[in-house]
Design goal:
Elements: H1 3-8, E1 15-20, E2 23-27, H2 29-49, H3 55-86, E3 91-97, E4 100-105, H4 112-139, H5 145-164, H6 172-185, H7 188-215, H8 221-248, E5 264-268, H9 273-280, E6 284-288, E7 294-298, H10 300-309, E8 319-320, E9 327-329, H11 334-343, E10 348-352, E11 358-363, H12 364-371
Parallel strand pairs: 2-3, 5-6, 9-10
Antiparallel strand pairs: 1-2, 3-4, 6-7, 7-8, 10-11
Helix pairs in contact: 2-3, 3-4, 3-5, 4-5, 4-6, 6-7, 7-8, 9-10
Length: 376
């Protein structure tokens, strides 16, 4: 397979459009399905707005609207992405899909102000673009294809902004509501619960609007029904996911990190892997090279597999690298430690004190059992 094909294929599927500051911008396969639906349902509206347009022109203008809608969503999500990166929040990727887009921020903001600013950035971009298109409409003769495209762009950005400002998770308005409640109460969980309720109300209103359209035989009733039901499902599922994530990151009262971490043992990286396994005895093992640099944490599963075939192989061959994201500060709040562990692809973490000295090793399974109320 050519290197170009590898470049265009995004991790997790989809088409890699470009990267912004290292963040991949991905077009999911479902986006094409959504765009096709927009073209099918929007082309008849073009006929109403431009009676002189033939079928080909209507389809072309409807296709242009689908592209403009996608570009509007992209600009909206880039707003989130830019602000998150400026605040030091890592972004895994930016993805466009059937129901819109998502900037996948890898770490929860630590402050309500950061949450609010990141959430508001997307609608601010959409409102700004809608305003620019509105000014352009004043200078363009009405009724022509260019005028209609600019009108479509104004409408697309206005729709993206208004929808995302609805006060319910997982929408931006819900995140802004969470930030406000969080700032007032000092509890992020309280903000999440308030915004989840808002999400349920938003979903209910969407269903009611669809029912009103059906009862009144509205010309767009079938389009409205499909869009509203799909969007209501998206909002309910997203709100439920946010609530579940908030519950996972909660730290049980009375639980201390010291109760979960295992003692740490330092061994030479060239130690026979079988001897390192025997010395571990349930402890975390830091393997140190002759120059004093840590080679990593002993991965017991990999060490057992290696010891079964070559017991005298250097233990370093079964080491898991110690990365910045797998180092925890013992003085960090419990909720932040839980979030870091659950979001990082590692099964054990080095816990250090404020001076950087190893205090122990935390294993993911020990933390998840404690969060579920199970003994280690």
């Amino acid at each position: 397979m050519s290197s170009t094909a590898h470049t265009l294929r995004a991790p997790g599927g989809g088409l890699l459009l470009f990267r912004y500051s290292g963040v991949p911008v991905v077009l999911a396969p479902s986006w094409w399905l959504g765009s096709l639906a927009v073209i099918v349902f929007y082309a008849p509206l073009v006929d109403n707005m431009m009676p002189a347009a033939d079928a080909v022109t209507s389809v072309l203008l409807a296709s242009a609207f689908a592209v403009l809608l996608g570009a509007s969503v992209l600009a909206h999500e880039l707003g989130h992405c830019v602000v998150a990166l400026r605040l030091g929040l890592p972004v895994r990727r930016l993805r466009l899909f059937l129901l819109g887009g998502l900037a996948e921020i890898a770490r929860t903001p630590r402050r309500p102000g950061h949450e609010g600013v990141v959430a508001a950035a997307g609608p601010a971009v959409s409102i700004g673009l809608a305003g620019l298109c509105g000014l352009a409409l004043l200078a363009i003769p009405s009724g022509g294809p260019v005028w209609l495209l600019v009108l479509e762009c104004a409408f697309a950005n206005t729709a993206v902004a208004v929808f995302n400002l609805l006060p319910g998770l997982p929408l931006d308005g819900g995140r802004m509501l969470r930030a406000g409640v969080w700032a007032i109460t000092g509890r992020r969980g309280a903000g999440t619960r308030a915004a989840v309720v808002g999400g349920w109300l938003v979903a209910g209103l969407l269903v009611v609007w669809a029912v009103i359209g059906m009862a009144g035989a509205s010309p767009d009733r079938w389009l409205r029904l499909g869009v509203c039901l799909l969007t209501a499902w998206f909002v309910v599922a997203g709100a439920g996911g946010e609530l579940a994530a908030e519950q996972r990151r909660g730290w049980p009262e009375g639980l201390a990190l010291a109760d979960l971490i295992r003692p740490v043992l330092q061994l030479p990286a060239e130690s026979p892997v079988a001897d390192a396994l025997a010395a571990a005895a349930g402890r975390g093992v830091v393997l140190v090279r002759a120059d004093g640099v840590a080679a990593g944490l002993l991965d017991e599963n990999a060490a057992r597999a290696l010891a079964a075939t070559t017991p005298f192989a250097p233990a370093e061959r079964a080491a898991e690298p110690i990365r910045p994201e797998s180092v925890l500060l013992a003085s960090e709040p419990g909720e932040e430690i839980a979030e870091r562990v659950l979001e990082t692809a590692a099964w054990q973490f080095v816990v250090v004190d404020d001076e950087g000295r190893p205090a122990g090793v935390l294993r993911r399974e020990d933390l998840t059992n404690a969060l579920r109320g199970q003994p280690r």
